[in-house]
Design goal:
Blueprint lengths: L1 H17 L10 H12 L7 E6 L6 E3 H8 L13 E4 L5 H11 L3 H14 L6 E2 L3 H10 L3 E6 L7 E7 L4
């Protein structure tokens, strides 16, 4: 989310600097207040939790590791346990939010990666579940499982993973 805000600010600054000198009516106090609100309000990505089965030997992941897991390039935890990835249907708003806000990819891009793996015989796609409740149940029951849910759900029998921001 911070990268998105930084990109937005960068675009705004370029527009501001490229305007001819003179009156800039859109740079009043209201514009500055709006910019400050964008910087301080929590982003949509904070409405999500990345969760894993309680047996998964990890409490936090880097963004690079999370992307590698969801693009199926990382398929085992450090202790050798197979990672079982669960996702919501592509049209689900929470899945779209997870892809865009957390993984910083479009849902169809992720789908294309999975199709390539499956049809080339080089891997398998994540397991798709109907809804968040099924996601929770499957992650609780599957060793090495990982998925995501809305922050408001009760996630007592699974571990909530901390995602470290990428410094790329």
């Amino acid at each position: 989310m911070n990268r998105a805000i930084a990109d937005l600010f960068s675009r705004w600054a370029k527009l501001y600097l490229s305007r001819p000198h003179g009156r800039r009516p859109w740079l009043g106090l209201g514009s500055w207040l709006m910019l400050l609100m964008l910087l301080w309000l929590p982003g949509q990505s904070q409405a999500l939790q990345v969760i894993a089965n309680s047996s998964a030997p990890v409490a936090q992941l880097s963004m690079r590791e999370l992307r590698a897991i969801y693009t199926m390039r990382l398929d085992r935890w450090d202790d050798g346990t197979e990672i079982q990835v669960f996702v919501l249907p592509q049209k689900n708003p929470l899945h779209q939010q997870f892809c865009k806000s957390v993984l910083q990819a479009l849902p169809h891009q992720l789908q294309a990666v999975w199709y390539r793996l499956v049809y080339s015989g080089m891997g398998r796609a994540p397991t798709e579940v109907r809804d968040e409740q099924e996601m929770l149940e499957r992650i609780r029951a599957t060793p090495g499982a990982i998925g995501y849910v809305d922050r408001v759900l009760n996630v007592s029998d699974v571990q909530v993973l901390t995602i470290e921001a990428a410094h790329e």
